Amino acid sequence: MLRRVLASLAVLALVAGCGPDSPELPKPADGGDLAACADGLCEVSAPVGAKVALPERTNVESVIVQAVDTETVMLLARGIGKRQGGSCAGKCEASGTGKDFKAKLWAGSELTYNDLSIRLLGVGDRTAVLKFTPQ
Predict the structure, then answer these.
(1) Mean pLDDT in order along the chain per 10 residues (135 residues)
(2) How far apart are CA 55 and CA 57, in angstroms?
């Protein structure tokens, strides 16, 4: 009986190590090269404080990674041009003021702002894996 209890505890300890505290991030196609986003199409690993510069045709000047926690990323997108508008798909929260659009995204959710789409592929250790696509 004691042997079964100890074996069960050992299995639980192993499984617990694979939980949400140790997520495995997807490997972004462009790694940590934020300059790959210069054409508006990239998949990058972006740490807190990263500023992603984007082409004028997206009507978004830049996106800043403001915060990353175990489940979410906070982004600030700065728009250019007269037309400003955005929306979210999936689990997300967003608000806009003037040319700034703030969004909190959970993995798998997507932000569309002006002519740019941003999908959160994963988060971990103050880093977000983001996919940028021009619309």
Answers:
(1) 41 38 80 97 98 96 96 96 87 90 96 96 94 97
(2) 5
